Amino acid sequence: MNKSQMSINIVISTLLLIGVITLLTLIVSSSYAASPQAIAALSNNPLLAYAPDSILVKFKAFASPAQKRNVRAFVNGEKMRGYRLVEGLEHIQLSRGKNVARTIESLSQQPFVEYAEPNYVRHANTNDTFYNYQWGLNNTGQDILGVIGTNNADIAAEAAWTMSTGNPDFVIAVIDSGVEYTHEDLAANIWLNSGEIPDNGVDDDDNGYIDDIYGWDFFSNDNDPMDKFHGTHVAGTICAEANNGIGVSGVAWQCKIMALRFIGPDGGFTDDAIAALNYAVDMGVKLSNNSWGGGGYSQSLYDAIENAGMNGHLFVAAAGNDGENTDAIPHYPSAYNLDNIISVAAIDNQDQLAGFSNYGANSVDVGAPGVNIASTMLSVYYWGSGTSMAAPHVTGIAALLYDSHPDWTPLQVRDRIYNTVRPIDALNGITTTNGVVNAYHALLEPIPPPDALSALILLLLL
Length: 462
Description:
- The chain is α/β, with parallel strands linked by helices.
- It has 2 domains: 46-122, Peptidase S8 propeptide/proteinase inhibitor I9 (Alpha-Beta Plaits, 2-Layer Sandwich); 131-443, CATH 3.40.50.200.
- Helices cover 30% and strands 20% of the residues.
- The protein has 12 helices and 19 strands.
- The protein has a 7-stranded parallel sheet, with helices on both faces. The chain has a 4-stranded antiparallel sheet with strand order 2-3-1-4. The chain has a two-stranded antiparallel ribbon with strand order 5-6.
- A hairpin with a 2-residue loop joins strand 16 (373-377) and strand 17 (380-384).
- The longest helix is centred in the N-terminal third of the chain and has 30 residues, at 3-32.
- It starts with a helix and ends with a helix.
């Protein structure tokens, strides 16, 4: 073989070797990516909270390679990769059927593990034009109409959105002055009655209402519940479309708003309110927002709300804007002593009770953002203040909970909201829970207690 031929062979061999190395690199690198099972799970559920088959574990600096191997073996895990940026951190693939929460809890108790956590799914934040003004969702201390906020005096919406942004099929009744169902930030999230053929003059679904496509106007007794002033703002806080490049974001990005109008320019009547609630319950709706009140005690309204609860309906109500203790001077319907009512006070962006907000150690349950709230208004966007603005934050959280737990009863949803509030001094002793609603904590699943037997086995292995 001449020198020329030898040179050619060397070049070919080198190229082949480079190709093999490149191929091996690609194969190894592909193993670093999410597993096909995790990708499939995310594809099937875009609201997936974390990978179902892997975790992130950071070993303590003194952990030896053998100790790390024993820890992985204990959870039947395989190291997928480490990270130069965080020494001791490993992405560990779990064996099929391994419970992520229990595995994390077990590993967190071990002497060689600094921490273990889920491999969370992350999403881009909302790109809505006025999102930065929505301090109630994410308070970074931004200036709102000349008032500097307090960092994290909010409902922790962004953290909650890593777990749920709502269910596009879940219907929420906004019982109010109607809803501008054509608004650019609401139209995609408006309920449409699939049982009706539009404008044919026939009650196709036989529910007693003709052509009730968007809901019903009980004030005017017609099929057009178009808003005149108030309900659109409420609806936007609950469920304005997110990440559409315009306007604002709802607490629940995805839901369907059923528009039920019973309030006219100067108010509405109890019978129409009852009729609206009756409509919602008959149509199978499990949740309503009720940013209205006043007037005397009504047994019929009490009975209607109580019976709605017996039919699986949660009734979120504004506590009222009189600046009064509703234990002494009741505000209805929020002050009715019914299990399926959540009564909501208003706080400002500095975690203080709004001066106009009602309160009551026995009659008002939670606080929520209700001062200078940016939301949808008639074809535009507008600031609004009141317990009317606070209640829809709670309704939005309830919608997120129903997405995560569709089989829950109203009392289960209510209790999760109550049990996960963020306590603040301003509400201590003047609400039943002493705190502000927290969407993230409400959605966060409790981690089961550590498995004592598993911990013992691991120690024996070490």
